[in-house]
From TrEMBL:
The DNA polymerase III delta N-terminal domain, residue ranges: 19-141
Gene from which this protein is expressed: yqeN_13
Keyword Protein biosynthesis among UniProt keywords: no
Pfam families, per database record: DNA_pol3_delta, DNA_pol3_delta_C
Keywords: DNA replication, DNA-directed DNA polymerase, Nucleotidyltransferase, Transferase
Keyword Ion transport appears in the UniProt entry: no
Protein name: DNA polymerase III subunit delta
Amino acid sequence: MNYKDIINNLKNRNFEKTYLFYGREYYLIENTIKVFKESLSEGMVDFNLDIIDGKETMLDQLISSIETLPFMDDRKIVIVKDFELLKGKKKNFTDSDEKYLIEHLDNIPDSTVLVFIVYGDVDKRKSLVKKIDKNGIVFNCDKLSDMDLFKWVKKKFEAKNVIIDNPQIMYFIEQEGYRDKSSEKTLSDLENEINKISSFVGKGNKVSNEVIDKLSQKKVENDIFKLIDYIGEKNSSNAMKILNDMIYEGESVLGIFAMIARQFKVVMQVRQLQTEGYTSKVIAEKLKIHPFVAGKALKQCNNFSDEVIIDMLNYILESDYKIKNGLVRDTLAIEMLLSKYCQKNIS
């Protein structure tokens, strides 16, 4: 059974007794939780939906939630997130607890739907995984296939009331690199890019390859590399130009802060591995980053000491807090970063 069939069955209130959704495509997992919630009677959700932290729950708490009858509805849904036994861990459960739970899955009340959610991989050898599969559905929320991805992207653009032809959809997908084996991009990342492009062109207008290139994540990453390079070179005027262009093209200041912070953390990791004698290729493999990113980080090591990087990361963290709490304007915060770590243009 594919994902679409599972979702359609849930919307039609055609439930299995148990489910396990796992994988790295969190967008699909979160959408599944949303559909489960919407399957309950409106106004009764608070009474008939239990969301349990699987890392902290104990056996008696879990069994109690499973056996509690629904209130003014014919169905109760119990969602257990990141259940430790599905990952081969046993912090809160003994062997006898695990055995009892597996046996108890055969006696779940007809009014209860038990859903396990794991953000990442599960240990498929576990008896619990096999029991869930026997009694219901185990589904790996992995990346969408080419055709499903095309349909999903097309639907998202159409929902934003912008015009995009099929060749441009294919071009967008290719530029984003979602299907690349090494890519860590998710549907949430693609949705953010679709929203940014749609906002830029405006309702009723057409998305072109030029617009996709202008706003693509690859361009944003390159802009971040350039921005950091200019900061390292103390070239304030070029750094400010790159920053203003990014903001004009729809990048949020908090997003820019996050990307700067992420790259500086990579720089520190790369520096450490370099001192241990690893080559650029091995460093990229160890950190699971693109060789180009590793190469840029190696060059940036020469412009920033760990002390300066830590100081900048602390500044970004403090600014993030101030922006979110209305204590400083976002554009002022990032302009202050440039003025603090860039001297006047010396080129």
